[in-house]
Design brief:
The chain is mainly alpha-helical. The protein folds into two domains: 34 residues; 217 residues, MetI-like fold (Orthogonal Bundle), CATH 1.10.3720. It is built from eleven helices and no strands. Helix 4 runs parallel beside helix 7 and helix 7 packs antiparallel against helix 9. It is globular.
């Protein structure tokens, strides 16, 4: 029974083992360097993380950043799905949006952050940056999935006079939804990185990014705190990526 369970979870165990090895190497390198302000030991980082957990403002800061992440993510999801459907169905819409999508995908995030800081207040800048990072991914996923729908199915909708509304509901959605959630898993991680980076540049109050910046300023005593805030951002990302992955599996089973 145990052997069967090990075989079924072979790759999960490999992933777990790789994390354990990484942490062991981290501890060893930190011990050999002997300079916590350059590389604190993992145990020191965890100790600082639990200290943060005991502080009320930790939850205020974490929830504030999470709120910005989710707000930008939801807005980009709505816009990406809506415009992605239009872009997949209409070549005209696709042509209109193409230069803007290309611009958003190629312009450096830091450059966009600095420009947006000129126009918006610091607390709104990270939200827009997160939106800008995620929107092109969702848009391209939706539009490309619709474009790649079997040509014979498209011909049948025209032949039998099926309305665009019903075509979207019965032909495009079953094709798009499973693929969409796969891209959302990747997009959410990128969203958190973009939002936290923007918070650092914009000095956004009550944010993980600002707390990272403050910890970095304390060169000799704040490195463990800096790593603890980084760990917080990683945990948020992993938790939501796992949730999206579970939703993706359930939806894939439903549509398949």
């Amino acid at each position: 029974m145990i052997i069967k369970a090990l075989k079924n979870n072979k790759y999960s165990l490999i992933s777990l083992a790789s994390v354990v090895v990484f942490l062991a190497v981290w501890e060893l390198v930190s011990f050999l360097i002997g300079k916590p302000y350059l590389l604190p030991r993992f145990t020191e980082v965890m100790s600082e993380f639990f200290v943060l957990l005991g502080k009320k403002d930790f939850y205020i800061v974490t929830l504030s950043t999470l709120g910005r992440v989710l707000l930008g993510f939801v807005i980009s999801l709505v816009l990406g799905v809506g415009l992605g459907i239009l872009g997949g169905i209409s070549k005209t819409v696709r042509a209109i949006l193409a230069p803007f999508i290309s611009f958003l995908r190629t312009t450096p995030t830091m450059a966009l952050t600095l420009v947006i800081m000129v126009w918006l207040r610091n607390k709104y800048t990270p939200i827009l940056i997160g939106l800008i990072m995620v929107f092109p991914i969702i848009y391209r996923t939706i539009s490309d999935s619709i474009i790649n729908v079997d040509g014979k199915l498209k011909e049948m909708t025209k032949l039998y006079g099926i309305s665009n509304k019903n075509a979207v509901k019965f032909m495009y959605i079953p094709e798009v939804v499973p693929v969409l959630f796969g891209s959302l898993v990747t997009a959410f991680g990128m969203n958190i990185k973009a939002v936290v980076s923007a918070e650092i540049l914009a000095y956004t109050a009550d944010s993980i990014g600002l707390r990272m910046f403050i910890a970095k300023q304390d060169f000799f005593g704040g490195t463990a705190t800096l790593f603890a805030w980084v760990l917080t951002a990683i945990i948020i990302s992993v938790v939501f990526e796992l949730l999206l992955g579970l939703i993706q599996k359930r939806i894939s089973k439903k549509w398949n």
